[in-house]
Structure formats: structure tokens, C-alpha cells
Amino acid sequence: MSLSDIERLRGMYYNIRNLTELAKTWKKDYRLRTSYNDAYTEVRDLIDELWHAFLGSDTQIISDTQATIKGDSRDPWGIAIVCQLENTVKEKNEKLFEKPFDAIEYINIPMLVNHERWLGVAASYVLEVYQYIEQLMYFLHRYNDDFCKQYENVSILLSKIRGECFTVFSRNSAFPKAYLIHQMLKILYGPGYPYDDPDVVTEILMSHYHDFTSLMKLNLKDLTKHHIELAAAFEKARKRTQNKVNEDAELTRLRLFKTIEFAKQWHGYSHICDDIVRKLEGTALAQFIPAIQKEWEKYKERKAEESKKYYETSDNLLDCYGFENYHNEGD
User: Fold this and answer.
1) Nearest residue to 177 (alpha-carbon basis) of 81, 111, 105
2) How far apart are CA 308 and CA 199, in angstroms?
3) What range defines the domain where residue 221 resides?
4) Which residue, 125, 146, 171, sits at the end of a domain?
5) CB contact at 8 A, 107 and 213
């Protein structure tokens, strides 16, 4: 699809606006009271230079808020007003259609990165910045023409920000972990969005999708093993079934057991297991119910043992500091 200069200009205006608003939110985020004197803040601070680089590049713009605004307005006043009016018309039409819930999009990479400890919040901001930069680069470099050359200084600044983003990406394991989880969930959910006729594994996932952000607690090595296993099984199923992977029994079985393994990894609540069993009853996967219940019980026993050891250690620590004696004396 071809883009006019006005469409490219609008795209740049709105992505720079969103970027600067994101940077302001980042600066005020109470979760980041500790300042980072490294690539994280370098990414954020470079955004402050974007408006000057962009608007300072066009010396032909003459803004007149009293003039009649046309569809090809190029100044900030004209573009802002025209786009709002156009968006109002679009929203009125789009409200006629309800977009179905997309669990894959809900569990997106920025959200997963945000669940990483320590630098997770800052890292998620960097990833959002990078996504806006990608859109800006698309509008700017859609064609190698005079428009692109006019904003060469903007291109240079965008390249600097992308470079700082790379520095962050290459140093923080949250990014590859979130990517692998997102790719695995695509296989686990299976084809068929918006899931008008989901299979039982997809139904289980849609019931407990919120659990899977906790997979960020796993190390990168373990996540890689899970991903390799799922990706290899998916490719074999694709070849066996001529791309109708949702009909492959072996892949469906693996999807089920991976889903259960991930579900009980950090949330081994009995009601989740009971809900999974109810969904499996009467299906081709019902044969696996005893194995699932057995694995779940083993998991609960292991967690109970871990909790017991933890509290025993805690009691010992209290005794060492004399809290037990202090309590008795108080009585």
C-alpha cells in the first residue's frame, strides 16, 4: 500500500507524541524511584530531543489557527484537528463491531517483561519505546525520497535511540524469556483465533491465561528447553497433517501436559486442577485425567514439604534471637 507524504507526516506526529508522553510517564513512575545512570535513562532522555529534531526540520510550515484547515495540513494545529475529526468518524463505525478477546495479544511481550524483577518495569518501557521507533522508521523510510532526506536529522536521532535499545536488550534476560514464552503460548493456544470453536486445551488456557506471566520466574535455559520441545512437535505435526496442526493427537497431548506443567508451576491450587479435569471429561483426552491428578498431588506434597521446612527454619531463627523466651516472659 502506498503512502502519501501527508500520511507519513501524520504517522510521525502521532508516534512522536506517544513517545514523549510515554517518556513523561516513565519519569513519574513511582516504581522507578531509583535512577538508572545507564542505557535505560539514555533511551528515555534522547526522546526529549525528538520534537525539536522533527519540527525544526520543516522550515516551510506556517501555522495559522484562524485559517481553514484542509486535509493536507502540515502544521501541528492542522494535523491534530483533522486527525481527531477523522478518528471520531472511525470510532462511530467501529463501535458496531465487538472485537473478540485475544489471549495471545493480552499476554504480550511488554507485559511479560514488566513482570521481571528489579529492572522489569524499566525494560518494559524500553521495549515500548522501541516499538514506537519501529513505526517512526517505517513512516520516515517508506520511500528513499526527498521527504526522507528532509528529516535526515530525525533519522539520525532515531538510530541513536535504537542503538541504546539494543544495549538494553543485549544485557537483560527478560527480553528473550518474554519472547520464548510468547512463542510457546502461540503453539499452546493453537490456531483458530478468535476461538469460535476452541479445543479443550485452548479452553483451559483461556480460563487460566493470567497464570502464565509467572513463567518469567523460570531461568532462560529451562524456557529454551520447553520452547525447543514445543517448536519441534509443532513442526512435525504441521508436516503430518498438511498444516492442520489442531487435528494432530500427539501435539494436542503435548499442549495439554505443557499447559498443566506451566499452570501448576507457581499456582498449584486445587480448584485449577478440578476445573481442568471437568473440561477433560467426555473428551478424547479424558484418558489422561488419572495421570494429571497424580502429578498435581505430587506437586502439592512437594510444595507442602517446602513450606514445612521454611517455617521450621523460621521458628529456629526466632528461637535464636530469643523471641520465644521474650513471649513467655510477657505472659
Assistant:
1) 111
2) 39
3) 176-313
4) 171
5) yes
Half-sphere exposure of 185 (CA within 13 A, CB side): 29
Per-residue pLDDT reduced to its tens digit, 42-94: 899 999 999 999 988 655 555 565 566 666 677 777 777 777 777 776 666 55
Q: Are residues 157 and 191 in the same domain?
A: no
CB 162 within 8 A of CB 42: no
Q: For residue 328, is it within any domain?
A: no
Whether 299 contacts 264, CB under 8 Å: yes
Cell of 5: 507524504
Q: Comparing C-alpha atoms, which of 113, 108, 110, 161 is closest to residue 133?
A: 161
Q: Grid coordinates representing 215?
A: 513463567
Domain boundary among the residues 171, 189, 209 is at 171
Other Cβ atoms less than 10 A from the Cβ of 246: the count is 18
Number of domains in the chain: 2
Do residues 160 and 227 share a domain? no
Instruction: For the full predicted model, state whether its pTM sits above 0.85.
Output: no
Distance (Å, whole) CA 199 – CA 324: 56
Quote the mean pLDDT of the chain. 80
Q: Does residue 324 belong to any structural domain of this protein? A: no
